[in-house]
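Page 37, continued from 36.
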């Protein structure tokens, strides 16, 4: 006997088309018919039109909170409290975000001038603050924010996540409010990992490279996309939501490891000969090379021109030197030193960081080339024993992190062993 899918006996809707389906002895009834029946009963017996009241209620519910939008200078000043350095990237990001949300706040123009989106791509080494910049500015604006990793995306039909799963995360961040999600910010990380593998034509498909780039085109430009609210792989029966990406700001970031070779190749074009300009060579050092990055370099790296065209704003993040790393340890509102002071204060312990110990932490972060992200790992390696033992010792009220203690604990950690192996 073939299994028959349950459906509403009144309207004929199937189970996967409704939110609720109640079963009875003779059939089923869906939530839509229950609501309509209740409206009819209230109107016929009591003279109350509940449909109008529900309509007004829904309209009121859909009213969205206003943006906390400030001029670009104030946006950058806010970023300065949390992110050290990277003035060029903060300036570009502040102007792009301000123009984007100012565009959304304007009434529909009667003329033919339409302001387009200003999607951004940020190029910088790991740990320089690309993700942190995007997260911080979305927190200030109080808009939904989602981070997507481009490395897990594949072309539709293959194992991995489809590009629509990016919007599923944004919808979840907006608590499934579609209107709110359509004003959010999406940060796509590791964009360089989906670069085209080579310019040579091949009979095999580049399903995690060029195929993903082509799938991102419709999202970045602005179109109505069918999005599975809970992700498409595990819940194939769910009802799709329609999201318009025209007003969603996309910020892309990537380390683009090796792009400095493409930049130097483009810059150092010169006739055949042995003459070199030492002055130019001193300017075009490796640590400053990202200053000269252009869309042409991204194309040489492996991004398709159609994708680059939908990311009109290009900015860079400088590598972090010792002075900047030390400022990151001490100065931001949410700096690591302040975090550890608060952690130890919860145990009524005052922790004091000696300047030499902080310099040692910075030196190790530079050696391992992990950027600001490496500072936390090194601090944890040094302070783990203290955080393990001190909460049990009630008589200890002060802990001083000295250079000798930092060296001793770090040399006994896996980080130091990794350094010896290297």
């Amino acid at each position: 006997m073939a299994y028959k899918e349950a459906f509403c006996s009144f309207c004929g809707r199937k189970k996967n088309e409704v939110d609720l389906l109640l079963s009875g002895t003779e059939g089923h009834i869906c939530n839509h018919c229950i609501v309509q029946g209740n409206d009819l009963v209230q109107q016929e017996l009591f003279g109350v039109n509940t449909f109008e009241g529900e309509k007004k209620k829904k309209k009121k519910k859909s009213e969205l909170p206003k943006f906390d939008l400030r001029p670009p200078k104030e946006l950058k000043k806010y970023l300065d409290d949390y992110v050290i350095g990277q003035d060029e990237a903060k300036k570009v990001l502040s102007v792009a975000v301000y123009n984007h949300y100012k565009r959304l706040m304007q009434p529909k123009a009667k003329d033919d001038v339409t302001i387009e989106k200003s999607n951004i791509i940020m190029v910088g080494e790991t740990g320089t603050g690309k993700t942190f910049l995007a997260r911080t500015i979305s927190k200030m604006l109080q808009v939904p924010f989602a981070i997507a990793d481009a490395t897990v995306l594949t072309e539709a039909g293959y194992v991995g996540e489809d590009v629509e799963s990016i919007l599923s995360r944004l919808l979840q961040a907006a608590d499934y409010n579609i209107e709110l999600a359509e004003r959010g910010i999406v940060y796509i990380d590791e964009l360089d990992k989906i670069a085209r593998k080579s310019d040579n034509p091949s009979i095999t498909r580049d399903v995690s490279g060029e195929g993903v780039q082509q799938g991102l085109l419709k999202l970045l430009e602005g179109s109505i996309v069918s999005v599975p609210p809970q992700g498409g792989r595990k819940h194939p029966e769910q009802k799709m939501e329609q999201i318009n990406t025209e007003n969603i700001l996309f910020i892309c970031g990537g380390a683009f490891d090796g792009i400095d070779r493409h930049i130097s190749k483009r810059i150092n074009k010169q006739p055949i000969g042995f003459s070199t300009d030492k002055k130019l060579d001193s300017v075009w050092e490796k640590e400053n090379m990202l200053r000269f990055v252009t869309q042409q370099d991204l194309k040489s790296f492996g991004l398709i021109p159609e994708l680059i065209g939908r990311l009109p704003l290009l900015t860079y993040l400088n590598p972090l030197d010792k002075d900047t790393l030390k400022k990151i340890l001490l100065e931001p509102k949410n700096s690591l030193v302040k975090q550890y002071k608060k952690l130890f204060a919860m145990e009524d312990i005052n922790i004091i960081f000696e300047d030499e110990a902080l310099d040692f932490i910075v030196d190790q972060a530079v050696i391992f080339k992990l950027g600001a992200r490496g500072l936390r790992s090194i601090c944890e390696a040094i302070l783990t024993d203290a955080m393990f033992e001190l909460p049990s010792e009630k008589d200890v009220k002060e802990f001083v992190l000295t250079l000798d203690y930092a060296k001793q604990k770090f040399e006994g950690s896996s980080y130091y062993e990794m350094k010896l192996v290297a």
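Residues 51-62, 417-422 have pLDDT under 50 and may be disordered. Flag for discussion at group meeting. Residues 15-61 form one domain.
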